[in-house]
């Protein structure tokens, strides 16, 4: 059996979602969140009522998660924002790509007509290249917006694609 | 007497702040907020605990308001975000410029090292030109991000300057 199930996150997924998020924010190189962000605060954010949050379940195990939300209220609410995380042991298996493709489908279903990332850290070349392959363009570059633990102040990209 | 006082907003300023905000969001051409956003919701946003909010008081009358906040949490919290509104009867008097200059001083005092606007509507040429004169550069352009009531989908600029 080898089965990937992409579905809405449920309250009982919280521990598995945290197991994915924790090492990523502890490393502190790819997301804005402080390495010592408490579990409760992080899960309140990731699973917040302003978001549609999903999990990627491979053979019964939650290995990835993403959320969709409006990037702006009201007159800007047709543009989705999203965040994605893949567990360490699931890297390189195409989980991220599958989640991304499914997120586009879901975002369209929810009525969004485009997707915007506000904070893709320029040193995270794996992510930048993945998003470019998936149709995103760099539409903005903010100097020194991320305090990288190793590289110091690092530029951040705004990336965008139509849905 | 002709005196401009720039100071932190107080709870008792709420009505005067709403009088500035209401016609601007009702027009719906320069801010993302829906024209029918209720007073309570809008003031909760503008005077929210995540922000430092100020008023510009000319000869005892509140004619402008702005807020400062971190544009991102944690590893991005050295970059300020800000929003500015000037009452209709105060336009063309330099209140916006004075507020802007003071906001840079305050932002530095609060520890920010740069300022970023995420959502300057490209058709709002008065604002775009003012910010450019005040040292901001357009560092990003998001296609069709604003549903303009007259022009339809309109690009939005990301603007940035060091402090």
Automatic annotation (TrEMBL), chains A, B:
Residues 4-163 form the N-acetyltransferase domain. Signal peptide: none annotated. Gene3D superfamilies: 3.40.630.30. SUPFAM superfamilies: Acyl-CoA N-acyltransferases (Nat). InterPro entries: Acyl_CoA_acyltransferase, GNAT_dom, Mito_N-acetyltransferase. This is GNAT family N-acetyltransferase.
